[in-house]
Amino acid sequence: MGVITKNPKHPPYPVTRYTLDVSEFVKIGILVACHNRVNVTSKWLQSLVEQVPENWVVTLIAVDDGSSDGTNELLKSSPIVTQVERGDGSWYWAKSMSRAEYILTENYEFDYLAWVNDDTTYFNNSFTYVDQIREKNPQAILVGQFVDRDTEQISYGGMKKVGRHPFRYRMIETIEEAQECDVFNGNFVLIPRNAHRKIGSIDGKYAHGYADFDYSRRAAANQIKMLILKQPIGECSENLVDPTDFSTVKERIMFLRGRKGMPLKSHIRYLRKYGPIEWPIYIVLPYLRAIFNIKPNR
């Protein structure tokens, strides 16, 4: 595996261990948010350790958002984790990732910034494949695809905008390498340092989701290419939930208002930035769908 750095501003280059020249090393800053799924996180860590290429110098910043099941202790004991920040249990994905990003950019050197999810596992040689595509597209954001463990269908990756609705996207079925997408899921995203400087930071003001789509839209506004890796790099079960999955109106409304649904402040924040002129209508529509139990168009 590659090199692990524990020292801010001074990542090691033990070239005596490898035949690689110093110039061949690439500094990868990895960000991950974790919460109360220690067994899942443990499998992800092991998979990550097995796949890091020898030319990667890894700085991994993990945010444990108030776990009580041993996740924090697991992260601190892992040799691949550089630094662990602890949240209070209310940060969820967006704020946790934003905090991890801040720690990395303020204290460590990196050539690329990588978003990862701890409910993923990686296929053999997947990161070597990522690195090969990175070398061919050094200024582009690379988006990793994952397959659902049960259905073997693409569960997360890059998407294209469909129609006028601000939240209607379709998963892209890649037929060639490095196809462009409009937005991406944050399960694995590799972002060049120069692109990060143009786009800015992850928006941690969202309650949970939205931040990956928000970042995608800002990348597009800065004319930065977002390219999907043709070959899936691992497995991740699809955990998307729709209000119509619940049986009663009360349950559907409660889900919508929750952090993992469409919390109102986050919903309005995103629509104001990226919705069409009639964006207020799209605040009401999910609640009408929930009340009348209308399935979404796919």
Summary keywords:
298 residues, alpha/beta, Spore Coat Polysaccharide Biosynthesis Protein SpsA, Chain A, 2 domains, nine-stranded mixed sheet, four-stranded mixed sheet, 9 helices, 33% helix, globular
Structure characterization notes:
By secondary structure, the protein is of the alpha/beta class. The chain has two domains: 233 residues, Spore Coat Polysaccharide Biosynthesis Protein SpsA, Chain A; 50 residues, no CATH class. Helices cover 33% and strands 20% of the residues. The strands form three sheets. Strands 1, 2, 3, 4, 5, 7, 12, 14 and 15 form a nine-stranded mixed β-sheet that branches. A four-stranded mixed β-sheet has the order 6-16-8-9. The longest helix has 16 residues.
Uncertain runs are: 7-19
Number of domains: 2
Would you identify the CATH H-level superfamily of the largest domain? Spore Coat Polysaccharide Biosynthesis Protein SpsA, Chain A
Specify the structural class: alpha/beta
Looking at the overall shape, the CATH architecture of the largest domain is Alpha-Beta Complex
Mean pLDDT: 88
Largest sheet: 9 strands, mixed
List the secondary-structure elements in sequence, H or E. EEHEHEHEEHEEEEEEEEHHEEHHH
Distance between the termini: 41 Å
For the secondary structure, the number of strands is: 16
Radius of gyration: 19 Å
The percentage helix is: 25-40%
CATH class of the largest domain: Alpha Beta
Question: Given the structure, what is the number of helices?
Answer: 9
